[in-house]
Design goal:
The protein is an alpha+beta fold. It has 20 helices and 27 strands. 33% of the residues lie in helices and 25% in strands. The two termini are 51 Å apart.
Amino acid sequence: MTHVLQNVVFPLDRDPDLLPLYADPETWSVVDEQPVRVSSVAHLGNILDRRRARIVAGRRVSLGTYFNAFPASYWQHWTAVRDVRLTVRTTGRATLLVYRSNGEGARQRLDTREVDREATSSFDVRLDQYSDGGWIWFDIVADDSHATLEGAEWTTEQEPVRQGGATLGITTYNKPDYCIATLQALSGAPEALDVIDRILVIDQGTQRVQDEGGYETVAAALDDKLRLILQPNLGGSGGFARAMSETLEAGESDFVQLLDDDVQIEPESIRRSVVFGRYASVPTIVGAHMFDLLDRPKLHAWAEVVDETPFMWRTLNQERMPHDFSVANLRQSPQLHARLDADYNGWWMCLIPVETIRAVGLSLPAFIKWDDAEYCLRAGRAGFPTVSVPGIALWHVSWLGKDDSIDWQAYFHARNRIVAALLHSGQPEGGTLLRHSRRVDLKHLMMMQYYPVTLRHRALRDILLGPAHMRAGLATAMPAARALAADFPETVVHRDSGVPMRARRGRQVFGRKRKHEFDSPTGLRLRWFTAKTIASHVLHSPRPENVAQPEVEFAKGDAHWWRVPLFDSALVSAADGSGKNVYTRDRAQYRRLLKDSILLHRRLRRGWADLAAQYRASADELSSHDAWKRTFEGQS
């Protein structure tokens, strides 16, 4: 029996920004060591439908792109599939060229074939030379008249390890328009629906999905596959835990596919993730990459890891991210050909085998932040790896227009990172985590950001109470954190208000020629700067005129922790550009919070071993199906 591993597809939207992810132009040049498009013959007018494209006479188009090349190294490493067949259907006179790459991005031609009229061409490829990386793809060169790609797919005759489908769980909070768009995309994608047993929408908001225009139509199209579940706002972890719980109880799926609400999907990616999960040699968490929904050719996450010593998440090759495929496509980016192994994958889209849930439980009651990373670390220790597979991706609202480290989410950033470390860190006292946490406090304090520090200290106090606080405060921690913002004037975003705008611009103060990466203090200068700044904020009150009116104005990109502390007050643009925040030095708050930071981190360090033992002893109960069921039923 033939099994389709991957279809060649073209974008759902007629959006020119998307095209580089699906079809590559024929000619590139190099200018100032950067690839530059010279001749683009892959354009929207030549995309005929979801599976078909025109190749203009005398031109060449490559399918060596993010969504249409075959990630051979991942299939070789994580599955037992060794024989793959590429089948290409064409009309017209053309030449097909099949290529492969290695882990360093070096290209090699595997085969060439001339075709005429209506033709079906098959190429058999052996997956035995892709240990370190590499893709396989094909190009089409039209002869003296137009040719048409009528469809192509990558298949195998090998039987999968697992046969089951997935229950897709979408967690949403007041984003009904996004959810309707996702459901509409799924309803028009029969090949994706073939691997989906059920679609659960876990609606935790006040703006209900069922009240959104278009719901009745899409619900009718999806028929009995769609189910709405209404529950109080338990955060992402509560929504996704509900999807896991319902999947376990229904017993009809081998996987649960977690999906965020503020996304745009590529339905073929849903299908690919389930197929990869079926073929994985051991039960494997299959993660998706994340593109920027507001800048769609930009890839933000490829493979994510947790560094052990500071116990902090990051993206591998972080210095190269985000990667802009409109500037350098797959064939022009050697670093994208190496196989990268992940520790975890974000729950914007993540496929989890039911076997994994039975073995390690559901999400921690974390509300948001670190629940995905902690879960994958927990699963990994139990023998269930996480693989972030290229060619499986969606578009998600990126974090570039946000700064959730200084809003109510600061509580969850601090608490859940430390809880995850208590559960999983092998370093004495969490390695350098607590030192880094103190430094985060200090930077916020020097920036006159007293609200996030107050939330971070609330988080540390809750951690010291023990693991029971997490479930007890699941529904109340977020409202309490948001309510606390009213006590801090710095949290008010002034939108064209009467706030004085006559402050000096930070660029004028420091000079336009100074670059951020060069003027930050390091070494002895950093120590001197820190000591001097702490002393200044502890000993000196702000000047009255600087309290009445901001002393300086900074663009968000200029408001660094080594610049803002030099002033009594500052006007700083909000991350999303919607207004400005006023930060004002408060000596009493600074002194109190600095003292609290020292004492709380000292208590954590001294009690680390005992706390780690407590949290690890309670981990199974915190994530158990029965405990979550009691939560969903409103029991304690």
